[in-house]
Every structure is written in C-alpha cells, then in structure tokens.
Amino acid sequence: MHSLKRTVASVVALAATAGLSAGPAAGEPIQLGQLTSLTGTNAVVGQDMERGMQLAVQRVNNGYEVPMDGGETRKLGPGLLDGRQVEVIVENTESRPASAMDAVRKLVNVDDVPVVIGEFSSGISVPTGQFTNRNQTVQISVGSTSPKLAEIGPYMFNAIGLDNIMGAELAQFAMQDSGVKKFASITPNNPFGVGLELNACKTVKQAGGACTRTVRYELNKSDYRPEIKQLFRGDTKAGFFTAYGTEARLILRQMYESGKEMPKGWYADYMTMWSNEVKEIPQVAEGIKGLVVGVDSNFYDTEYAEAYEREFGEAPLTAFGGYAYDAAMMAMLAIDQAGSTKPKQIAEALHEVADDYRGVTGDKAVNENGMQKSESYQRKIFKDGKLRDYTVSGS
Length: 395
Known about the structure:
Keywords: Amino-acid transport, Signal, Transport
Helix content: 40-55%
Signal peptide: 1-21
Family: Belongs to the leucine-binding protein family.
Number of helices: 11
CATH topology of the largest domain: Rossmann fold
Pfam families: Peripla_BP_6 (PF13458)
Strand content: 15-25%
Mean pLDDT: 91
Number of domains: 2
CATH class of the largest domain: Alpha Beta
Structural class: alpha/beta
Order of helices and strands: EHEHEEEHEHEEHEHEHEHEEHHHEEEE
Protein name: Leucine-binding protein domain-containing protein
Strand order of the largest sheet: 10-9-11-12-13-16-17
Number of strands: 17
Shape: globular
C-alpha cells in the first residue's frame, strides 16, 4: 500500500512556498489521519481531497482567522494547543475497501491519531467508520453520502449531505426538467449507489411515477455493455446516472459507441466525480444534466478556490477538496474548543463548532448523529466539455 506522511518539516516547507511564516512549533506535533484515494477509480477526487486538507492544515499552522457564521472570525494558531504544529498522515486507500481497512488500522492502532478525515466512497467510509467508532476514534467522512453512516455511532461525523437529500433533489429536478415520471437508473452496487437509487426512485414513486429499469453494476470491470443493454429495454425516456470517474468514462464511452440515447436525457448526481475524466472525450457526456454539491459564491472563491489555485497552480479539481478542507477545519476547531486531543472531547466539541463554522461548502451544522442537516446543490449541464449552469425552462 502506498502511504504518504506529512511531517512537520514538510508542512513548514509548504508554508514557505506560499511566502508565509510557519511560526514556532512547541511540543509534540498533533497528528491527524487522512484516508483518501490517490490511485484507482477515485484518484482525481482523492488528490483533490488531499490538497483541500493540506490547505486547511497549512493555514492553521501559520495562524489563521477562521470565518464563523455570525460574520466574526476565530483565531486558530500558529499551531494548536499552545503552538503544537499539526501533522497529517495520509493513507492511500487505492479506491478499495480492503486497502482502506489496512490503512485505518494503521492510523488508529499504530499512529494513534485522534481524528481520521475521509473517505470519499461510502463503500469505504461505512466499514472504516465502524472500525474507528468501535475504537473510540473520531472520523469525519468527506464525500460519503450513504444513510448507513448515520447508524454508526457517536464518533462518526460527515461533512456532506446524505443521499436521502441528494436523491430527492435529483429526482425532483429530473421530473421538473424532463416532464416524465418513468426513469431508468444505473448505479454502482455499493452503499453509495444503492442509496442514491432507492432515494431517487422513492421520490419518483411518491410523485406517481416509477423506476422501470434499475441496473446495479460492479466496479472495476472492463466492459459494461451488458449492463447498458439492460438499461435500454422498454420505452423509458429518461434516466438517473451514478458513477465514479473511471467507470463513468467507460460506461459513457460504451453507451455513446452503441448509439443508444435517452430521448429526455440523463440526470446525474455529483457530476464532478467524472467531469474531469471525460474532458478528452467530451462528446460522450454531452447534454447530461444534474447536480453539483457545494456553493458557488464569492465567499467560496475568495476563501478557498483562489488560495487553492495559488498553492497548487490550478483550479480545484472537483467539488470535494472543499469538503475535505471543511472537515479538517472543523476537526481543528474542535481540538481547540476541547483544549484536548482526546477523541471523546473532540467528538463533543464537534457538535458545537459545526453549528458556528462558516464552511466553504455551505452550512456545516450536524444533527444528533453527526450528519449534515442540509446540503447545497447547483444545477448543471455538461456542454462543450465543461459543466455549465443550467436553469429549467419556465422555472
């Protein structure tokens, strides 16, 4: 397994590249863990999440005025708890649950981190979250959206809205835009994909419609033509599309090559999961509509996107780096609030700081289960190789 550790020295070096003083380090560093996919299906998202967390930690190590909901700021750093630098131990999950379990065992049992940030896939965050919760270690998942996360326990938190929110929003958008109430659905056969399918189809059913074709595919296959063939049986005119980057590229390419189209189009959740992966073959995704998580505002740009581009030389790769940034900021605010690196105190403080923190991805308040109370979505269409704003005609 590839493992990458951010040492105090490397954090100081990163700060120096930005022309900032890292400030003095006092005492032993505070180590946080990160689970992210640096290789495999979700590598682009995983790299973006690593960068988002890196930016948050760098800022706190240098000293930062963190924006809060009321318009005020809260000073963190330099460092935490009397100047202790924050160090990140990054573990590559390889986009696989088995590798992720090896990684989280190392972070908890060997590195003894009080907080784990990640992961992106619900198929990874559910089992790793169950492990961290049993071992009384805080985990804040970043891009995972399965409702099963809410059942894990008091040490599990989430930085993004769950699929019951996204599924309902996507279905309502699709019905309003397409004018139909019968849909096909294609999703990965894991907690994330199944949760989205169930929630979107439930919303359609409540409106008097139905999902007439539901295809659940396995990850890491080299051919999805049999699954595609199933989708186009019957006369369904619109569909829900869910896929991670690598699978999306292959499924959309094979769908395009087959010449098959949904007359009323495809509606996709979390479009930035795959929009970068198809940029070299944009025709395969042309016209897909859907939702992007997070906010599009001056605050997001000035607080996060512009700093990200200065540090890494390009715009944010996906929507999910911002969620990793928010998760890391909430963890560090909670450590500061608790005055401790003990997981129990951090978990208790997280409920309070989540209410007060102004996230770059929107409101971060959590419910009694540590899950987001709300989520922000933007309606988009993939057109001419880019995600563009989309407004339903007549709305």
